[in-house]
Design goal:
Layout lengths: L8 H16 L5 H23 L7 H9 L3 E4 L7 E5 L5 E5 L3
Antiparallel strand pairs: 1-2, 2-3
Length: 100
């Protein structure tokens, strides 16, 4: 059976971010906020259930450790007024200090 990725990781992450946003939004009622948080829990539990039965691949433990504790590179274009960070080996950066 060929492998077809119908739900890329980015889509799952976007859904989680959406549910988090709804859950934290003070303008959304508790019923919908709690419903979104339940979706996050169900997603977490399903992922944990699936991972429990899987074999461990070469290099997996190191990769998981890196993802949990990423090495960050800090950059400042203006001598410390604005500070950006990025994960080692990546180009996308995020603001740590200052204004964009």
């Amino acid at each position: 059976m060929p492998y077809i990725d119908k739900t890329p990781v980015e889509s799952v992450c976007e859904a989680l971010d959406l549910w988090r946003g709804v859950s934290d939004d003070p303008n959304i009622d508790g019923y919908n906020g709690w419903g979104c948080k339940q979706k996050i829990y169900k997603t977490l539990w399903k992922a944990q259930e699936v991972l429990e039965g899987m074999k461990v691949y070469h290099g997996e433990e190191e990769w998981v450790k890196e993802q949990k504790n990423p090495v960050l590179i800090y950059e400042s274009p203006d001598k410390g007024k604005t500070v950006y960070a990025r994960r080692q080996g990546e180009t996308e950066r995020f603001l740590v200090k200052g204004e964009e």
